[in-house]
Design goal:
five-stranded mixed sheet, 8 strands, 2 domains, Chitinase A, domain 3, Helix Hairpins, alpha/beta
């Protein structure tokens, strides 16, 4: 039985994140190691926590009310509204469980302890596609902070994993569905973590 298991054998959700010992954990760890912990900033943690609480305390009761109203309409076998709301309830619970899982495995990253000479968590990196010559800019972030329209990608993504630990001028082989591609690190900065 898991050490944090409750009486039913299921892990108890603990919203307290484990502090990071040093920033080097997320420099060149493999994907398997990343499954154990979810790196994020304190802001990302708080954002996920408030979203989980909102879903549980606001959205789930709304769905429960709609289920009760649909149940009051009579025969449940032919009640499409009832079945639709039950499905919505299941999907909402799955989303809540996913958020709680990320929070339970959260590892808060201290930006002050991260190296500044290589790609790591929180780095904004400009890369150049070796074959095409195109340049792109990405910021490696944790769960709850990703925004693909703004170039904020998860540090646990294949692209993030491929870039971790690289220095300016080094090349990274990035796995893709139809093979792989090579990116060269052009510049690294840390304005995302510094709030600029």
């Amino acid at each position: 039985m898991h050490p944090s298991a409750g009486s039913g054998g299921k892990p108890i959700w603990n919203p307290v994140a484990r502090p990071v010992n040093n920033g080097s954990r997320f420099l060149s760890v493999g994907v398997k190691d990343m499954d154990e912990y979810v790196p994020m900033t304190r802001d990302g943690f708080n954002k996920l926590k408030s979203e989980a609480e909102r879903l549980e305390t606001v959205e789930m009761p709304k769905i429960a009310e709609r289920i009760a109203a649909a149940r009051a309409e009579g025969d449940l076998k032919e009640n499409a509204e009832y079945h639709a709301q039950r499905e919505a309830q299941g999907l909402m619970q799955a989303k809540i469980n996913l958020l709680k899982s990320k929070l339970a495995r959260a590892q808060i990253i201290d930006p002050a302890k991260l190296p500044r000479d290589q790609v790591c968590f929180g780095a904004t990196v400009v890369v150049k596609d070796v074959d095409l010559g195109d340049e792109e800019e990405y910021t490696l972030v944790g769960a709850g902070e990703e925004d693909y329209n703004k170039g904020r990608i998860l540090v646990t993504s294949p692209l993030g994993q491929g870039l971790l630990g690289k220095k300016i001028g080094e090349k990274a082989e990035i796995p893709a569905p139809k093979g792989s591609y090579e990116l060269e690190v052009v510049s690294i900065r840390f304005d995302y973590l510094e709030g600029t």
